[in-house]
């Protein structure tokens, strides 16, 4: 478990002071994939780097698996860091070393015997899908392959936590997907806690269970990904959600059923597997109303799917009310759009 307690970071230079992180408190559970999203300059990298002591907070404390990262000796910090792997946007590989030698490097530093480190490196090469490329140099690899080396190297000392600093931002969409799938399977297979920072909501959508939204050094919103996606509170969160959910402007479509004065437009939200249920056809069968579907979308997240459907209900007001009660009884959220 990672506890971030009232952490702030102020950079002071001749040019002045910058408060990069302001009074952030978060708890990240063991084994989860936790995302931090924000625009450039929001403070994500600074916060992430405080989780492994690459930056020391000006105030507050970071506790990883019961041990303070901020209030320990440098020897203790070195030991703790071996259990916290990190991967980077630009991979940070050693260019003069082969794939195998890059992965061996952290094992050499940890004084693992030669036999054991070669065995471990080979296991990792298999885990990340790089068999056959052991003797290649980073310059001979694609971006996705380089990140696979980065992941193998980060996992070398069996860490409990993997920090991902914009790990897919330099990759094309297809390669991004394959790296995100690899991270998800590593999280499942090895039970490693993953903390990732990104400015792309589809990354959060695909792999994270919970998310914190950062703006101007603060966490302005946090929660389960499905809840944040379906009910974003802050303007900045709404903007990020629009990256994957589409905009309300897309709703400006012609209404094709003639109004009788009672019709209204509703937004239905289906969560917890409800998106797969035939609720709309049940409403049409059981209530004497007409339904005009204006827009619909199902989004897959790491915690299952959720859907939104914007509909116009046309008919007798009482029938419309009954239909809405029926939908609500099926855990479908109904709002007037
Ligand atoms: N070493 C430093 N010295 C001075 N200011 C810094 C330093 N590192 C970061 N900052 C400043 O702190 C603020 C937060 O930066 P940070 O890199 O944490 O944001 P970010 O959300 O990760 O953005 P990006 O994705 O662009 O890196 C920015 O205003 C940045 O200029």
Automatic annotation (TrEMBL):
The keyword Kinase does not apply. Keywords: Amino-acid transport, ATP-binding, Cell membrane, Membrane, Nucleotide-binding, Translocase, Transport. GO terms for molecular function: ATP binding; ATP hydrolysis activity. GO terms for cellular component: plasma membrane. InterPro entries: AAA+_ATPase, ABC_transporter-like_ATP-bd, ABC_transporter-like_CS, ACT-like_dom_sf, MetN_ABC, MetN_ABC_transporter-like, NIL_domain, P-loop_NTPase. The keyword Manganese does not apply. GO terms for biological process: amino acid transport. Transmembrane segments: none annotated. Residues 2-241 form the ABC transporter domain. SMART domains: AAA, NIL. CDD domains: ABC_MetN_methionine_transporter (cd03258). Belongs to the ABC transporter superfamily. This is Methionine import ATP-binding protein MetN. It comes from Gottfriedia solisilvae. The lineage of its organism: Bacteria, Bacillati, Bacillota, Bacilli, Bacillales.
